[in-house]
Specification:
Elements lengths: L1 E6 L5 E7 L6 E9 L2 H19 L8 H13 L3 E5 L1 H13 L7 H12 L4 H12 L5 H30 L6 E10 L23 E8 L5 E8 L8 H11 L6 E4 L6 H9 L4 E5 L6 H9 L7 E5 L5 E6 L1 H24 L4 H5 L7 E4 L3 E4 L3 H6 L4 E6 L5 H9 L2 H13 L10 H27 L6 H8 L3 E6 L6 E5 L4 H12 L1
Parallel strand pairs: 5-8, 8-9
Antiparallel strand pairs: 1-2, 2-3, 4-15, 5-6, 6-7, 9-14, 10-11, 11-14, 12-13, 15-16
């Protein structure tokens, strides 16, 4: 049995005693529920006191003399050290399981695990290794290692990640997903790599680089590449596909990408190189006659239809009632903002030129600004409609299902930017920037493996929670007073930590 603190929807915490004797998690007793931190801790203590009663395993208290000996030892001894071993137990095990231990460099291992457990600058990483792991590495050594990492290890890293993905997917990589993101720098100066361009992070004043990521189903990694910050993302699709398709000898996979990578040139090249594809379509940007055909389909609620375009390309149109509600809500919200600005006389030239719902503005003369409500019924005809361009014979349902999985790559970027804190980047030298991204790619691969394992074992907590738990698993190292032999013991874990340890050991 173990004690669990379970968050509730209302924001309170329930303290429960859980039994897992038959392989299933069963609530034996709920000690109480509270939102007050002190009350919760009191209930935790009470729960721990209750467990021996429920299990009928009573603890024999130490006699006072033993208490004094132990207390004296910890007060006077300088021969013991407490270190955090959770990250190594969890991420280190997965590092080896995936195959990254083929890279025989301990510093590489430390940097990857630190990116998962304690993401931050390289100076912060050196401090973490010293303070929590007892590993003293000068930050200058880390920088020297970064100078050679990408040139020597990137290819091997991608090979290991691809073999892992291939194994997880039973050798079937028939569908790949591609997308790009931007990573900004806390700097003002540009160079050959760090350039100011369209920022997906909203940091338009900061130099940036662009990352193209290729993944398989469920977001399992295949490879990545780095581009200058002002690169047009549509120009990166074909080079990345050809690079990894040839390198890993892939059968031409179905390529799935969003509308940002849509261009006539890309469609022609994908067709010429015989890549099947599903790309997000920008139906409102189509030619006038195509738009008339789309509206003429009269697609029913949650239905679909398609239009045959040139060169064997189909434009598949689907309707979603949920998307229609969202479109309606967004339009009304935008109109309300316009109405408020007009009534308050705060509409400026800059606001008029902004993209968005200003398309409803009607300008008369030089100063009379009003909303053209006649445009709204026409705009409503597009509510709920979504387009997909494809050269496959898949049905509309199959196309939607495959394209919907594109969120996995968006999730990969979100994990990298938030949990792994790959941004902002403080390096300025290209080789160190490339090394930083390489480390983040390896960390993401391990993160995905942990996610897979937790899901397979039906763990009662998330990947983020598992990462937090790993940071509070400790080891006590001490010297025996007579023999001076060094001993190590793991500090007793709580219930969730034990579950995590068991899951990792079984994997």
């Amino acid at each position: 049995m173990f004690v669990r603190k379970k968050p509730n929807r209302q924001g309170s915490i329930s303290v429960q005693i859980i039994d897992k004797s038959d392989g299933k998690y069963k609530v034996v007793k709920t000690v109480g529920c509270s939102s007050d931190h002190e009350e919760i801790e009191q209930m935790v203590v009470k729960a721990h006191q209750t467990v021996p009663i429920l299990t009928k395993q009573y603890v024999i208290p130490l006699i006072p003399y033993e208490d004094k000996v132990i207390s004296s030892f910890f007060k006077t001894s300088k021969s013991f050290r407490i270190s955090v071993i959770g990250p190594e137990l969890v991420f280190g095990k997965l590092f080896d399981h995936i195959g990254f231990n083929k890279i025989k460099d301990e510093l590489f291992r430390h940097l990857v695990i630190a990116r998962l457990a304690y993401p931050g600058s390289k100076l912060r990483t050196a401090d973490y290794l010293k303070r929590y792991r007892g590993i003293e590495i000068d930050v200058s050594k880390i920088y020297r290692f970064l100078d050679i990492l990408n040139a020597t290890l990137k290819t091997e890293v991608e090979d290991i990640a691809f073999q892992y993905t291939k194994k997880i997917l039973d050798g079937n990589i028939s569908v790949v997903f591609y997308d790009m993101t931007t990573l900004y720098f806390e700097a003002e100066d540009e160079d050959d790599l760090r350039r100011i361009g369209y920022s997906k992070d909203g940091k338009f004043q900061c130099p940036q680089i662009m990352i193209g990521l290729l993944v398989g189903p469920n977001g399992y990694p295949i490879g990545y590449d780095i581009f200058e910050g002002n690169t047009f993302e549509g120009d990166t699709l074909i080079p990345i596909l050809e690079k990894f398709q040839k390198r890993f000898n892939l059968v031409k996979p179905t390529v799935i990408a969003d509308a940002g990578l849509l261009s006539k040139d890309n469609l022609e090249k994908l067709a010429a190189k015989k890549y099947p594809y599903i790309l997000g379509g920008r139906i409102k940007n189509e030619k006038h006659n195509i738009k008339n055909q789309i509206l003429g389909l009269n697609i029913p609620e949650n239905g679909s239809g398609w239009i045959q375009k040139e060169d064997g390309v189909r434009l598949v149109i689907t309707h979603s009632s949920q998307r229609a509600k969202k479109d309606e809500h967004s339009r009304m919200k935008g109109l309300q903002k316009l109405e408020t600005k007009i009534r308050g006389g705060k509409m400026t030239k800059q606001q008029i030129n902004n993209r968005g719902y200003n398309k409803y503005l009607k300008l008369e003369g030089e100063i009379d600004i009003s909303i053209d409500y006649d445009k709204i019924p026409e705009d409503k005809r597009w509510d709920g409609l979504k387009g997909y361009l494809t050269n496959t014979d898949l049905t509309a349902d199959e196309i939607v299902k495959n394209y919907t999985d594109l969120w996995q790559i968006e999730k990969a970027f979100r994990i990298s930017k938030t949990d792994l804190k790959v941004r902002p980047i403080f390096h300025r030298v290209r080789r160190r920037i490339e090394a930083h991204v390489c480390i983040a790619f390896v960390a993401y691969t391990i993160y995905k493996d942990l996610e897979r394992i937790l899901y397979a074992h039906k763990a009662p907590f998330s990947v983020k929670r598992a990462c937090d738990l790993s940071q509070t698993i400790y080891e006590l190292t001490y010297d025996l007073p007579n023999t001076r032999n060094q001993e190590r013991i793991t500090v007793p874990m709580d219930g969730e930590q034990e579950i995590l340890r068991e899951i990792i050991e079984k994997s």
